[in-house]
Amino acid sequence: MEALPDKFVSLSLARRHVSKDATYLLDVALHPAGAALAVSHSDLALRLHDEATLRLVGEYRGHGGPVRGLTFAHARPDLLYSASEDGTVRAWDVRRPGTSAAQVFRGEPWHSFCSFDVSCGDLLLCAGTPLQDEDSLLVFWDSRKPNAAPLGVYSESHSDDITQVRFHPRDKDRLASGSSDGLVNVFDVRRGSEEEALLCTCNSNSTAAAVRWAAADGSRLLCLCHDEGLHLWDLRRLDSQRPLVVFSCPDVRRSEVTADGRGPEYLVGGAWLEGADRLLVVGGDRGGDLLLMECDGEGLRLLGTLRGGHSATVRCFAWDEAGGALVTGGEDGQLLLWKPGDAVVKKEGRKSSSLFKLKSRPDRSRRTNQTDNLRSQH
Q1: Cβ of 372: how many Cβ atoms within 10 Å?
Q2: For the chain, what percent of residues have pLDDT higher than 90?
Q3: Is the pLDDT of residue 363 over 80?
Q4: Which end of the chain has less neighbouring CB within 10 Å, N or C?
């Protein structure tokens, strides 16, 4: 196996796609089979690209507010899910680019969503809401019932906007949520009430921007904060006297990561690299350069630097484990593909062979016990 630092040092720019609409690229999702990329844009559109060429295949429109969550289904990867501030979660058929949403999930009329994820078995959907009337909610649906009311909500565990929800990569009932209140909560949604479901709470002492499951068994949690703080917790220590904190840095801008003693100016995100058994953290500077870093109990270590691609802040990335490639998108409207080898920036090519060839507690406004509905699904 290629050494991890060598893998990232060898990355160079291979493909470039520039948005013709001068929009920010906000989020990117990689198809489980590596056949496609989905990107959310600041103009409310979702755009589908062939991953190998970055060729634009089609776009989806229908959301009336910014998209705040984007992911492909796991067991049914022909579905692309998106959640929006317009209060809907929509499922799009990636075999039919340009069509209307195949499914629409709604909560109450006043709900707005700022985070979203789908469980590893595709059964449960969960969206987080901003704080409204002293409540910030985790809303759950059965993915098989798009026209039904939500299964239930959790309403007591956060006191501010729920900025991130992440299901465990292997345990369909394990969910982590992060909030502007600084808390990162872990739930077992099989349990009866919200209080029983809450397994632990980690405090970032800041505002949580992103949460990622880490370690081969998903036993660690990475939290990135809006003020560029970073925290890594080990949940295996819950039943011991050892502290949960594996590594904590209140401001990575003050860390000494590069050879000249600098840290990244901002954090883009993190990803667990299954094949390498390492945690990748991506940061950048305002000029568009990217720092690829490894994170563990020893801190942050530089793996490689990507230059000459972006010209503004990078907002999102996706790591293709099978292809050993990195996809990045940013405020310069560019979608870039980085691959091992010499830099060969190509124009959009012909479409490759791919799927494109194929045709809790109850909400206080409700009187029914929606937590029981959630539990009954398991």
Answers
A1: 14
A2: 77
A3: no
A4: N
Distance of CA 301 to the CA centre of its chain: 23
The CATH class for the domain spanning 4-376 reads mainly beta
Tokens representing 251 are: 């401001």
Q: Are 41 and 23 in contact (CB under 8 A)?
A: yes
Domain ranges of the chain: 4-376
Please, what is the average pLDDT of the chain? 89
Interior CA angle at 191 toward 233 and 73, to 5°? 70
**How much is the average pLDDT of 266-278?**
93
At residue 376 the predicted structure's pLDDT band, cuts being 50, 70 and 90, is low
- Amino acid letter, residue 76: R
Closest CA to 326 of 3, 2, 10, 1: 10
Give the torsion sign (CA, 372, 144, 91, 354): positive
CA distance 259 to 241: 37
Q: What pTM does this model have? A: 0.89
Q: How confident is the model at residue 349 (pLDDT cuts 50, 70, 90)?
A: very low
DSSP lists the bridge partners of residue 154 as 138
How many beta carbons lie within 10 A of that of residue 238, not counting itself? 13
